Amino acid sequence: MLGRPSILLSRTGSFRPENLGQNAMAMIGNLCFTIFVLGVLIFTIIAATYQPEDPLFHPSEKITNFLASKSNATFRADDTVVRTGEDFLGANQTAFSTFINLNDVDVPETADAGSVTETNLDCRGKIDDPIDCTDPDVFHLLMRAAIEKFKDIHFYRFGKPVRGLNDSSCHMAWRFRPKEGKTATFYKDYRSFVVSRSENCTLDVVSIGDYHSGGNARKRKRKNKTGFDGTPGKLDEGFEKATPKTEGEPIALPVVGEAVNDSLPVVESESSFGNGKYLIYSGGGDRCKSMSHYLWSFMCALGEAQYLNRTLVMDLSICLSKIYTSSGVDEEGKDFRFYFDFEHLKDSASVLDQVQFWSDWKQWHKKDGLSLHLVEDFRITPMKLSGVQDTLIMRKFGSVELDSYWYRVCEGETESVVQRPWHLVWKSRRLMDIVSAISSRLNWDYDSVHVVRGEKARNREMWPHLAEDTSPEALLSSLQDKIDDGRNLYIATNEPDTSFFDPLKDKYSTHFLHEYKDLWDENSEWYAETAKLNNGNPVEFDGYMRSSVDTEVFFRGKKQVETFNDLTKDCKDGINTCTSSS
């Protein structure tokens, strides 16, 4: 009993006045630590469950919903012109910084500004003799004339001049980019130069022809070196790519204006075919969907083929969705090469046309004992197929809508393993050459505005202000602080009656896509080349092609004014759908 008070005092001693401050600090510290732990836990939960608005940053099931949506936007350039590999390449300033200046071109001692005097030539009686286009002095004269005339582009390479259509004409080609180019693309032009000779032997450039007027200087298509030896990923030898040196591996860049060789690869021999390993996707519900849906699925197949180190057997005949056709119905029989750069694809990856493949398979598979591995469940991942030794893996898709889409293969755990090789698919260089031709006719010195009207402007419930905000009066008011008076203004629009924009002509020199229809009519190079791909039958310049060209010309304007954000506060996808990017 005598010891109990002392024990009690020792237990309660912590409540003595001199200890209260220390205890309070300890309690506050514990409370703060608890709040910190709870905060970290809450933040972790939010971060794990948050899904951003942009579908491109969604997990694959969100992209599935995005691609399967029934949205019917009226201006096709908004949501139907797909981004391809070249759009993801940055315009590396180091790679494009070295171009040819006027000071880099040698000036002969006998030359004045803009002229050259021939040496060792008695001009008497020889004024009308043919111009020697191979003369180095003539070469320098033409280069200087081109650099002085086309002030809004940078020159990167000149081809040696050749004789033109007559004795006073020379044709010369060059590779260039617009000075304010925003895409990682080179362009090629070849023009006709008229050269005159005076009595004192002085040569002058009298005139320079229009875009692609110097056909004799165009590099001819190389011979068909598209033999397939069964080796996945083999590049054709001799294919000239624009490859600016960057850190790491060189990156191939498009060269718009070069002759296109998109003939189909052929198998060199029976042994080559038998030594190959192939992947083919069959059936499914992707057909006749939007171009963005088609490409998303195709890139999944191409990515799996690369992961498995197999040749992708592809169907070059695609179905164009009715959203792009003038008939308003889905149209079969469109060629992949109408819309995409097949030459770049076949030279950068291992692909075969399925018509050719099945012909060879029928001829040789029994004789050579070639085997087929059938996969009918998209949930069987590429990783599970990596050990398959059969000659052909065929993925067969059913008819159940969502489960029949090719891109389902690349969902789930596959998403982090199989990468879509976007760098392998570029836009058709034939279409991009039309873009280059339009831009060149505007001397690459124009501004552009994108004006969305159509059904969206008529639907005031979803876009209450769009009609008023895109009226001619509103456009003049909106553009006055953005575009200088007198500028060339390219208007990309879905407004069918372009006279609607006539009031803008008082301040700007307006231009529209239909003004350049000679670039795809029956007398054009595009018309002739696409007809060859189509067994001699003419190819319609369809809605997707129009939207693609219209959008790409818009993107090459020096100043670009968008409908949403710049002209109206309405949301691109309708009321209450605005995000930070629309």
TrEMBL record:
Species of the source: Capsicum baccatum
Pfam families tied to this protein: DUF7074, DUF7075
Positions of the DUF7074 domain: 129-213
Spans traversing the lipid bilayer: 24-50
UniProt-recorded name of the protein: O-fucosyltransferase family protein
GO cellular component labels: Golgi apparatus
Residues of the DUF7075 domain: 271-563
UniProt keyword annotations, A-Z: Membrane, Transmembrane, Transmembrane helix
